[in-house]
Design goal:
The structure holds 2 protein chains of 2 kinds. Chain A is an all-alpha fold. Chain A has 1 helix and no strands. Chain A has a domain at 20-51. Helix content of chain A is 94%, strand content 0%. Chain A starts with a helix and ends with a helix. Chain B has one domain. Chain B is 75% helix and 2% strand. In chain B, strand 1 (175-176) and strand 2 (179-180) form a beta hairpin. In chain B, helix 1 (7-28) runs antiparallel to helix 7 (184-224), helix 3 (72-104) packs parallel to helix 5 (139-153) and helix 4 runs antiparallel to helix 5. The two termini of chain B are 33 Å apart. The chains are: A mainly alpha, B mainly alpha. At the A-B interface, helix 1 of A face helix 2, helix 3 and helix 7 of B.
Chain lengths: 51, 227
Amino acid sequence: MSAGEKYVAAAYGVVFLFVLVWVAIIAAKLARLERETGELAELARGRRHDG
Amino acid sequence: MPARITLPTLSVISVALMAAAVTMIFFVAPEDADQGISQKIFYFHVPIALTAYVLFGLGAWKALRVLWTRGERYDLESYTAIHQGTIFGALTLITGAIWAKASWGVWWTWSSNQLVLFLVLFLFYCAYFMLRFSVEAGPRRERISAVYALFGVALIPVSFLAIRLASDFIHPTVFTREGPQMTGTMFGAFCVAWAAIVVLALVMYSVELAGKRTDAHLRELREALGR
């Protein structure tokens, strides 16, 4: 692999890595939202039972 | 995002365009006579930079709507666009530094107005987040953030035109008044790559905005349920 090819691979790799990290962050956020929605649904169900 | 195109459809278009762009860049577009293989960085670096400008511009437009209509939703849209713009701005600086090292032998040069002005623009928008999170959530924060975002948009034409106003000629000028200084296939690859990056940005913007809206709705629900 020539030096030029290494730089091209690095540039495209960085873009790919950024998108991958962004997907991981969004996945973590989605998991948190799912958990919180579940907790709120549980609370709403409890209130319906009580009242 | 246009109402008729759903997010999954947009994601599929993004993947297809990205595959077409990579194919055109590496298998169709010829190698540059001067720079050789390292010129291939241009096909992602320039579209990413242009998309960053578009996202900062979108953020400013939404900020104007915040001040105009006092609409809370525009604040979230402006914030998301600027956040995405900052991500694409960081990518521009990193891919640009790699290209600079490959072409000029240095990672960075302070003598190029284009580079320095883009860095100023990037740092300006990084400071946006510091300002935003130093103010308590509410109408005051929305207004302050909107005014700041609008100030930033003034830097975009300066940064964009800097290359034409610069006297150093280090940074290459590909698009001149005579048209693009490249072959037809190179220009075709560039256009496909830009379309791919723009659609990717649109997908990322929509997903992030949906997440932030859901977060806001959950906060409201939590307050309504007394938690």
